[in-house]
Write a structure and sequence with these properties.
Blueprint lengths: L8 H5 L20 H7 L5 H4 L10 E3 L4 E4 L5 E4 L5 H6 L7 H4 L1 E2 L7 E2 L6 E9 L1 H5 L8 H19 L5 E4 L2 E2 L4 E10 L1 E7 L2 H4 L3 H4 L11 E7 L13 E2 L8 E2 L8 E6 L10 H30 L3 H6 L1 H23 L2 H19 L3 H31 L3 H15 L16 H14 L2 H15 L16 H4 L11 H6 L5 H6 L3 H44 L13 E6 L3 E4 L2 E3 L2 E3 H7 L10 H8 L15 E6 L11 E3 L5 E8 L17 E5 H11 L3 H6 L2 E2 L9
Parallel strand pairs: 13-23
Antiparallel strand pairs: 1-2, 2-3, 3-11, 4-10, 5-10, 6-9, 7-9, 8-9, 10-11, 11-12, 14-15, 14-20, 16-17, 18-19, 19-22, 20-21, 21-22
Helix pairs in contact: 7-21, 10-12, 10-13, 10-14, 10-17, 13-14, 14-17, 14-21, 15-21
Length: 718
């Protein structure tokens, strides 16, 4: 291994000015941006935005995959419709279809359980633990040894943090391993569905309009957080009471206009803006095309297997929706890479950086060696990821994945809790149980069988196969015989395996248990190779990132970590954009556009009562004075990505004016490269939500519960 690369201290100490719009900032960084925030018109002090215990940041929460915010002191949470889709789907059937019909609880007693895996996370503490994770690690460790030592330290930091069982803690890396922060979140595990509009509003335009502009989607829904009578998180129970949220967002119906500043706070998933040109080309030319083809084929298989059976279609509605969303984004990335040669842009940047690094380093030879090692390990990483993808394709079965998880759990339970692999410790058992239970609402044996058979056929055509896997796979013809020979289709029996030991798995005649046991060694080989590669990356990448940050600062460019599902703040302005020559797309859509798109055929079927309200122009106080009607969605230059769905879009005072739910198709490549000219985020205007609640769905009880700031000329609160 190379010793740590030395850069002059002056380079590491340089500060950088902010850069408008671009940046998914950690809250603690916001005081550095106070001049920029003030310049665009934000009136909330930057120091207040940096304080997680103060409004508005204390009202921003995560659902584990989406963002959300408290909007009443009674634990009422607003997020996207598609973020609550699992909760809607799990309570639906062909006869009682809340997806199609919508759902509204008029009383607390009518609220429905959102599901065993649904959580609300309230971040309350963030500590820099970089020294605790990385200090004293020997330079001569193998990659796997380094990875395991880092993970061991992280597990201890988490265990110390979770002494109070009300909290869930994590230690994600920032800047690809240069820094580590321990995040403490209150984890509320009794979450209930309160209100969701019908799919004809919450998902208007469906997959056709996904990532497109103009949009006319009312992508919102409401959940409620419940806790024990002592105010602490508790398992779901009829005795629980609504969580008393210390802070919540005021909902502003005063409206916004072109050029207005906005703040956006949420939990963006993953970006890749610091990756190398080789990694971009791999994603563009190899990884994304294969993944897109896999998703298209899987969707087609599910649709064919569920066709004509309404109950089966409902069971797989959430699964298909999730795959479709990932597919549209992946295809958008492929198209975006074709439209703009981001790899070539990165080539120029990378060449400039490498020249700067070699010229600035105290030892040019060490710098060159670091870069050579970096390129080599990145190549290993990309090659291994192809084998990992192939393994996932060959085992595309919910029953196999359940069996694999259960067998691994039995093995890990033989170890002391602190030595178990992350994901299989005592703290993870409730999540494993939740995933296994979730199959009750999203599994049909004949559909699972069809998916596995089709996947095995596709697997044979992939370029890279894990060594030894082919011989252990069933033939396509043999798959059908496995399903009558398993009890994992029964929830109680599936959950019972959580308490069984390794010997029980080896003695079992269950077809999927047997298959999981047979494939275990190959899965572990892939996992151990991944640890070796990741451990080498843990050593090389932080040195690379330290140099990249110094270089960016020297050029006055923004320095923020890639998104990693932790709380971030971005800002921007309402505005139009020009995706191509001669075309300009304005920043607002209106309810008239809903009527114009309405065809009576899915996905452009608007509810009759909504169309009537538009025809009669029953706009009331939600009528925009400039547009002359009710706005539906709007665009801003905010820096967002997946995970930002449901993020609070706030005005200059920190009041809720919209919900983030998408990006324009031209913006999808912003995960790799932020282009200020065309990057736009799509938000639902809160006035449309309030108008639908009042004029269409008559959700008066929820309107009354929220604190709503109406336009000054609107008179008394209604």
């Amino acid at each position: 291994m190379f010793k740590k690369l030395a850069l002059p201290a002056a380079l590491l100490a340089m500060s950088a000015p902010s850069f408008a719009d671009e940046g998914q900032w950690q809250p603690y960084q916001l005081p550095q941006l106070k001049a920029e925030l003030k310049k665009i018109g934000i009136t909330i002090p930057a120091e207040k935005l940096a304080d997680l215990s103060k409004h508005p940041m204390s009202a921003i929460v995560s659902t584990g995959g989406c963002s959300a915010s408290f909007v009443s002191p009674e634990g009422l949470v607003v997020t996207n419709h598609h973020c609550a889709y699992d909760a809607i789907q799990r309570n639906s059937s062909a006869k009682k279809n809340y997806i199609n019909d919508g759902f509204l609880a008029k009383t607390r007693a009518e609220e429905l359980p959102a599901g065993a895996s649904t959580r609300i996370y309230v971040t309350d503490k963030v500590d820099n633990v970089t020294k605790e994770v990385t200090q004293g690690l020997a330079a001569n460790l193998s990659g796997r040894e380094r990875r395991e030592q880092i993970q061991s330290r992280i597990k201890k930091l988490i265990a110390d943090c979770e002494q109070d069982k009300a909290y869930r803690c994590s230690v994600p890396s920032f800047h690809r391993g240069l820094e580590y922060y321990r995040i403490r979140q209150m984890m509320i595990r009794d979450v209930r569905l309160v209100y969701a509009p019908p799919d004809m509003i919450g998902n208007y335009g469906g997959d056709i309009d996904n990532f497109e502009w103009p949009r006319h989607t009312g992508d919102y829904s409401f959940l409620r957080a419940y806790v024990g009578k002592d105010g602490r998180p508790a398992d779901p129970s009829p005795d629980n009471v609504p969580y008393k949220s210390k802070d919540f967002l005021v909902v502003s119906a005063e409206g916004i206009k072109n050029g207005d500043p906005i703040l956006l706070a949420g939990y963006p998933g993953r970006t890749s803006r610091y990756k190398l040109p080789s990694e971009i080309r791999f994603a563009r030319d190899v990884d994304y095309p294969v993944r897109a083809a896999e998703m298209m084929a899987d969707i087609a298989t599910i649709e064919a297997a569920t066709k004509g059976n309404a109950d089966d279609e409902v069971r797989y509605a959430s699964v298909v929706k999730g795959i479709n969303n990932r597919l549209k984004k992946t295809q958008g990335l492929i198209d975006g890479f074709a439209r703009k040669d981001i790899a070539a842009i990165k080539d120029a940047q990378d060449a400039s950086f490498r020249n700067w690094l070699i010229g600035s380093s105290k030892s040019p030879a060490e710098a060159k060696a670091l870069l050579a090692k970096l390129d080599a390990i990145i190549a290993e990483d990309m090659a291994l990821s192809q084998e990992e993808l192939a393994y996932g394709v060959a085992t595309n079965s919910d029953l196999f994945n359940s069996a694999r998880t259960l067998y691994r759990l039995a093995i890990e339970k033989e170890k002391p809790n602190a030595q178990r692999e992350s994901g299989y410790q005592e703290r993870d058992l409730a999540f494993i149980k939740g995933r296994l239970t979730r199959l009750e609402q999203s599994f049909v044996a004949k559909v699972d069988q069809a998916r596995l058979q089709a996947a095995l056929q596709r697997y044979t055509k992939l370029d890279k196969h894990p060594q030894g896997l082919d011989a252990l796979l069933p033939s396509v013809e043999a798959v059908a015989a496995m399903y009558p020979k398993t009890s994992l289709t029964d929830t109680a029996k599936r959950l019972a395996w959580m308490d069984k030991d390794r010997a029980a798995f080896h003695q079992s005649d269950d077809a999927f248990i047997q298959w999981a046991v047979k494939l275990h060694d190959i899965g572990m080989s892939l996992e151990n190779r991944r640890k070796e590669v990741d451990g080498q990356l843990d050593f090389i990448i932080p040195q690379y990132m330290e140099a990249v940050i110094a270089w960016k600062k020297s050029e006055g460019k923004p320095v923020y970590p890639d998104a990693n599902s932790t709380l971030r703040v971005t800002y921007g302005t309402v505005g139009s954009y020009s995706p191509r020559d001669g075309v300009t797309k304005g920043p607002f859509t209106t309810v008239e556009g809903i009527a114009e798109k309405h065809t009576g055929k899915d996905p452009f079927i608007a509810p009759a009562n909504l169309l009537a309200a538009i025809k009669e122009q029953r706009y009331g106080i939600f009528k925009d004075p400039i547009l002359g009607t009710v706005p539906v969605d709007f665009l801003t230059s905010a820096d967002t990505t997946g995970g930002n769905s449901g993020s609070a879009v706030m005005n200059k005072r920190g009041e809720l004016i919209g919900l983030n739910f998408d990006s324009t198709y031209e913006s999808i490549t912003k995960d790799w490269y932020f282009d200020t000219k065309i990057t736009r985020a799509i938000h639902m205007d809160i006035r449309y939500m309030l108008w639908v609640m009042k004029e269409v769905d008559h959700a008066d009880n929820i309107l009354q519960e929220m604190t709503i700031k109406y336009p000054k000329n609107a008179g008394a609160k209604k």
